[in-house]
Amino acid sequence: MEALTWTGSMAWLNPVLGVAVIVALCAYLLQIALSFIPNAEMRSVGSGSVSTADQGLSGLLGRIGAYGFLAALALLLVYVLAGVVMGPGAGIFGGLSRQLLPVWIALVMLFAVSITYKRRLGLYGKLFDSTVGMIGFGLVMFWVFAGVFGGVFDMLITHDSLSQVSGMKNKLPGTPLARAEPEDYQWFLLGGDNLARDVFSRLIKGSWVVVQIAPMATLFAFMVGITLGLPAGYYGGKLDVFLSFLANLILAFPVILLFYLLVTPEIVRTGIPNYMALVLFIFPLVFLAVLLNSRFYTQPSLRTPLLIVALGIAGWLYLSLVSTGGAIVDAPTYRMPGLPASLDLFDIDPGVLVVFVSVVFVNAPTVFRIVRGLALDIKTRDYVAAAQTRGEGPWYIMLWEILPNARGPLIVDFCLRIGYTTILLGTLGFFGLGLESESPDWGTTINAGRRLLALYPHAAIAPAVALLSLVLGLNLLADGLREESLRD
Q: Can you point out the beta strands (E) in 156-223?
């Protein structure tokens, strides 16, 4: 069986795509260069000193660049559609497109439903009025769907991510399997790594590691930061001084050094990360309890059963999260019993738990400072004074008056912070800290491939591009949300 080329029978489109990309780049570069040249056609507007430039050549270049960019996007769409239909007949891109068919379907359905009902979906719906926001959202959801379909349901992977296939060590993308069985996928679409494992399958499995850890760790960090930042900013005084000192103390440590200390085997064996999990993971319960109590404080007949049910379920999830194998801490010299195995809903891998705790611990102080600053500003507004005049309690004002009016900056920072967390996870994996050496996470994969980067770059470039695209998508999504929140 022959090796696959990148575009297979669609190679005749390659020159057209190249021309479209070159035209777009040249037009935009010329437009940027032209903006530095003083324009002799500047003309005044009205009687003031405001001036505007005649569009002329600059406008023409902008239109040419836009047409070239749209043509390149259209051609990429043709590659994807042809790949879905033709599969490996359209080369490596065709094989990738065919394997990712569930992701394409999920993206199309998500965008179709979201655009149809965007006027009813609040800030999320307004995101689809922003081109930048939609592009970022599409990139993020691509990897979310890839992680779910590939990591949970194994629908996308072509080979087992840990299996070593004889004769496939450091093979280039599109190399056919030697002595492949009929039921095997016949190619390594993105080549093999230095241990003869399929790079594409490890890439998809690695996306699930990121999708599991980065958003949830960021969410827990926000729960810690919000729960402590609101009272610090609202009350001020000694409470603010004490909490701000703790936050600054943590932020004073270099992040990488702090991560290294938390995930080293010697620290892990002492059980310190498990004790930290006990403390940090309790904050969502505190937040939920205070939120419901402050909202339904005047309705005790509803508040009490609601708190019992909500906190009962949340407490069960909390104990399941911090317990592993029936123990919360299982150090060589000490064992703290946890939730019985029969009631434990899930067990988190010890390496993942350590990384999760480390990310929450490092991100929480920054979130605290953002929330504190927003609370200091918003508590002086008239609607907060009106709520105080009505006799509302402090926690009601913090959670139901201040926090909703701070949602714009917090949502934007949440998206950006997921990107930072993704980079931190990649950094930890690259240095071999926290996760197992066989983990398919992108940082570990990049580290394994960098040793032969000069000879076989595909093993490191593929996860690096995936990491870049996800972080870029999160940044674009944050830009779109910021743009729309400012209009809100």
A: 175-176, 187-188
Q: List helix spans (H) across 296-403.
A: 300-322, 350-378, 382-389, 394-397
Are the CB atoms for 483 and 130 separated by under 8 Å? yes
Beta-bridge mates of residue 335: 330
Torsion of CA 24, 26, 30, 32, to 10 degrees: 60
Residue 431 has which token pair? 């240095």
CB atoms within 10 A of CB 280: 20
Prediction pTM value: 0.88
Q: Which of 171, 162, 242, 177 is nearest to 439 (CA)?
A: 162
Cα atoms in the 13 Å half-sphere on the side-chain side of 421: 33
Q: What are phi and psi of 347, to 5 degrees?
A: -115, 125
Nearest Cα to Cα of residue 168 among 136, 147, 190, 151 = 190
Spatial contact of 8 and 88, defined as CB atoms under 8 Å apart: yes
Q: For the stretch 114-126, what's the b/e string if a residue is b when 16 or more beta carbons lie within 10 angstroms of its beta carbon?
A: beeeeeeeeeebb
- Contact by Cβ (8 Å): 288, 313: no
> Quick one: which of 156, 147, 123 has its CA closest to 212?
147
**Ordered mean pLDDT values, 10 residues apiece, the chain (488 residues):** 87 93 93 77 44 64 91 92 91 93 96 92 86 92 95 90 88 87 87 91 92 91 95 94 94 81 79 89 94 91 94 92 82 79 80 84 93 94 91 92 90 91 85 75 88 86 94 92 75
Bridge-partner residues for 336, per DSSP? 329
What is d(CA 340, CA 330) in angstroms, rounded to the nearest whole number? 14
Q: Where are the alpha helices (DSSP H) in 379-453?
A: 382-389, 394-397, 407-430, 442-450
Angstrom distance (rounded) from CA 73 to CA 176: 30
The residue type of 83 is: G
What does the DSSP 8-state code read for residue 164? P
| Torsion angle in degrees (nearest 10) through CA of 177, 180, 182, 186 | -10
How many angstroms separate the CA atoms of 28 and 66, rounded? 9
Which of 362, 478, 474, 468 is CA-nearest to residue 419? 474
Distance from C-alpha of 233 to C-alpha of 370, rounded to nearest angstrom: 10
Domain ranges of the chain: 1-34+57-99, 207-454
Q: Helix axis angle, 300-322 relative to 283-295, nearest 10°? A: 170
Q: In whole angstroms, what separates CA 104 from the centre of its chain?
A: 19
**What pLDDT is stored for residue 48 in this prediction?**
45
